[in-house]
Amino acid sequence: MTVSEVLRTQRIELPSWAFGNSGTRFKVFAQAGVPRDPYEKIADAAQVHRYTGVAPSVALHIPWDKVADYPDLAAAAKDDGIELGTINANVFQDDDYRLGSVCNPDPRVQRKALDHLLECVDVMDATGSRDLKLWFADGTNYPGQDSIRARQDRLAEALHAVYERLGGHQRLILEYKLFEPAFYATDVPDWGTAYAHCLRLGERAKVCVDTGHHAPGTNIEFIVSFLLRERKLGAFDFNSRFYADDDLMVGAADPFQLFRILLEVRLGGGFEPDAGIAFMLDQCHNIEPKIPGQIRSVMNVQEATAKALLVDVEALTAVQLAGDVLGANAVVMDAYNTDVRPLLADLRAEQGLAPDPMAAYAASGHAERIVAERIGGTQAGWGA
Ligand code: AOS
Ligand code: ZN
Ligand code: ZN
Question: Which of 46, 54, 251, 280 has a CB 3.0–4.6 Å from the CB of 80, allowing a cystine?
């Protein structure tokens, strides 16, 4: 596919929780005009799509986005020009989960957690979602606190039960994270653990790479390349980080890393329409306005994608095979150092969009309107 074909067909999914109030363990800063219910979160996500043209779906988090009538929510999304996407389960916010969810030593809590995961598949049936994304806060804080091995057995059993429940077109996407909230041993701490569980489950179980979930210095693009090669890369949770799971805007901390990741996506065929990679954002906008924060993030992914697409792969292969180290590095850096903003502005203009989505949203008056209309926004909850 050509550069512009990929850029035209690229789809970035937004997280509903990015539109609600969020913060750190120290303080949640309330912003005026935030959504008061899932319908308003969807309306906000639709604004991001309206100005970028590449964010036509929004991921839900259950129970944060629990509604009485999911087909009605899906219809509302459709009216707004977007659709409901991935369903994220939540087995971390109840007191019952102090010692874990599906890995908890107490069978009652294991059952409760599994029931929630199965309920999420019911929600997927009602929304028409393809993907169930699972992130487990499970783990232990102290050596000896629980059996690492028994916890893996419990995890495998629960994943198996969920996988069995999926419909033929539905997928289980397993996310890993090095640490937090557990500080000694997390039950799904890395891509290898997620990969091994997915391998046992079957074809429709895939790994989610959250870009904030690794030890500093980890070569994330290597993981991406490996998983793509094995056809086990299911999704990205994009965000950026300076320290740990900071959930800042993607491409803000390290745009070069984002470029390197997207280059491996390209080289591994991940932009092909049948590759089935869900490109999602998983971010919180604690101090910046949320809709513009999402617009900026989408643009950052687009810019890094455009640069990755500009790499002259034929030339790169030739210099690689010739063992020309500096030549190969130059091919990659030439693409990275290209200013792709004019190219993207042209592409938007061709699609009837404003060339600068940030400016267009700011000029629309929408931000002022929601502040005036929405009093008493709820705390949406945010990614741990
Ligand atoms: C948690 O750290 C993860 O990034 C998850 O993706 C989480 O489910 C999401 O952030 C919403 O809580
Ligand atoms: Zn995530
Ligand atoms: Zn996270």
Answer: 46
Cα(23) to ligand 3 centroid in Å equals 13
Q: Where are the domains of the chain?
A: 10-373
CA of 284 to the centre of ligand 3 (A): 10
* pLDDT tens, position by position, 264-286: 999 999 999 899 999 999 999 99
C-beta 65 within 6 A of ligand 1: no
**Which parts of the chain register pLDDT below 50?**
383-384
Tens digit of each residue's pLDDT (9 = 90 or more) over 342-358: 999 999 999 999 999 99
Q: What are phi and psi of 154, to 5 degrees?
A: -65, -40
Q: Of 298, 292, 304, 295, nearest to 339 (Cα)?
A: 304
Nearest ligand, CA of residue 17? 1
CA distance 113 to 71: 24
Structure tokens given for 81:
């020009």
Does residue 300 line the site of ligand 1, with CB under 6 A? no
Instruction: Tell me the C-alpha to C-alpha distance, in Å, between residue 80 and each of 45, 57, 58, 66, 74.
Output: 9, 11, 12, 19, 10
β-pairing, 131-134 vs 171-175, is: parallel
Let me know: does 201 contact 172? Beta carbons within 8 Å.
yes
CATH code that applies to domain 10-373: 3.20.20.150
CA of 319 to the centre of ligand 2 (A): 37
Counting ligands in written order, the one closest to the CA of 89 is 1
Asked whether the whole model's pTM tops 0.95, one would answer: yes
Closest ligand 1 atom to the C-alpha of 175?
6
Ligand 1 pocket check for 282: Cβ under 6 Å: yes
